[in-house]
Amino acid sequence: MKQLIALAAGLALSGLTAPLAQAATTLTVYTALEADQVKEYKEAFEKANPDIEIRFVRESTGIITAKLLSEKNNPQADAVWGLAATSLMILDQQGMLQPYAPKGVDKLSPEFVDKAKPPKWTGMDVWAATICFNTVEAAKKNLPKPESWADLAKPAYKGQIVMPHPASSGTGYLDVSAWLQMMGEKKGWDYMDKLHANMAQYVHSGSKPCKMAAAGEYPIGISFEYRGAQLKEKGAPIDLIYPKEGLGWDLEATAIIKGSKKLAAAQKLADFSVSLPAMRLYEKNYAVLAMPGVTKPNPFIPADYAQRLSKNNFAWAAKQREAILREWSRRYESKAEPKS
After folding, report:
1. Which of the four, 41, 76, 266, 300, has the lowest number of CB atoms within 10 Å?
2. Would you indicate the residue range of the signal peptide (predicted)?
C-alpha cells in the first residue's frame, strides 16, 4: 500500500496524472423559438462547441422581451437566439446589446443585419402572418373562405376567429403593426375594432391559433406560415391563406447581452447562428432566410412568398410598441385568454 501511495505521489509530482475534465461553460440563452425547435438547435450548437452548454429560457416574444427589460440593471441572460428584431431594437435603445460581427456575417443579406458597425444583432429568418382556415368546420357553419384581411371583418365570421395577443406574442404584434402601417393609424384601429367584434379569443402564443384551427376548435386562426405548413403536411384539414393586402412579418435574430461574463462563449453562439449549418436548421421551418440560396420549395408556401411581405418599418414598430400595446389593451383586452 505504501508503495502505491508513493507511486501516485511521484506521478503527481511528475505531472503524469490525467488532468481533471474541464467543466463546460454554461451559457444562459433567452429565446422565443418554438419549443420543438429548441432541442435540435441546442444539440447542433453543442456538438459544434462541446466546451459550451446552453441553458435555454424559452417564452413567447412579448414575455421574453419584458423579462430582458426588467433585468436591464442585473442581466441574467448571456445571449438571445431567436427573438424578434423589433424586440432587439428596443433592447438596443436601452443600451443592452453588445456589438459583435459574427464570423461569416458577410454571407447574410445586408437587410437582415443591424446597420451599426459592428452590428448589435444579426438576422436568422423571416416569419409572417398567415390565416389557417379549417375547411371542414367552415363547411359545417357555411362560412366562406376569406381571401383578405378585410374579409375577416365581415359579420359572417362573428365569434369564429382566434389570434395571438400582441403583448405576449411576436406574431400578434407583427399583425397589429402591419395593419397600422398598411392602412394608416385611424383606419387600422377602425379595422381592429371590427375584427374584435368577430374575435373569439386572443391567445398567448403565435402558433396556438393555427393549432386550434387545425383541431377544429375554431374555423379560423391567425398565425404564421411555417406552423400552418407543418400542420397541413401532417394532414390537418386546413387551407393556408395569405391575405392579398400583404403579410405582416418580422425577423428572428440573435444578439449578445451587454455585461455577459461569458463573452467568448456568447460570441461562439453568434458565430454559429449565422453559419450554414444553422441556416440549414432554420430552413426546415422558414421560407425566407438571412443567408440567400439555402431555402427549398415548400408545397404549402407560395413561390412568391417573399414578394407578399408588406412594407415594414422596423424602427417605427419598435419605437411605437409600448404605445400601440397600451392602446390595443385598452380596446381589446376583454377577450384575452387568461394567463396560466
Report:
1. 76
2. 1-23
**Do 122 and 132 sit in the same domain of this protein?**
no
d(CA 262, CA 260): 5
**What cell was used for 326?**
397600451
Set of cell numbers at residue 17? 496524472
Q: 301-324 pLDDT, tens per residue? A: 999 999 999 999 999 999 999 999
* pLDDT for position 13: 38
Q: How many domains does the chain have?
A: 2
For range 289-306, the mean pLDDT: 94
What is the number of other CB atoms lying within 10 angstroms of the CB of residue 37? Answer: 18
- 94 with 119, same domain: the answer is yes
**Over the stretch 199-255, which tens digit does the pLDDT of each residue have?**
999 999 999 999 999 999 999 999 999 999 999 999 999 999 999 999 999 999 999
Task: For 77-96, write each residue's pLDDT tens digit.
Answer: 999 999 999 999 999 999 99
* Binding-site residue positions: 226
Q: Which residues contact 157 (CB under 8 A, 6 or more apart)?
A: 143, 146, 151, 198, 220
Residues 74, 193: one domain? no
Asked if 239 and 203 sit in the same domain, the reply is: yes
Output the known binding site for Fe cation.
226
Let me know if residue 229 belongs to a domain.
yes
240's CB contacts (< 8 A; 6+ apart) are: 130, 131, 132, 133, 225, 228, 229, 232, 300, 301
CATH of the domain at 138: 3.40.190.10
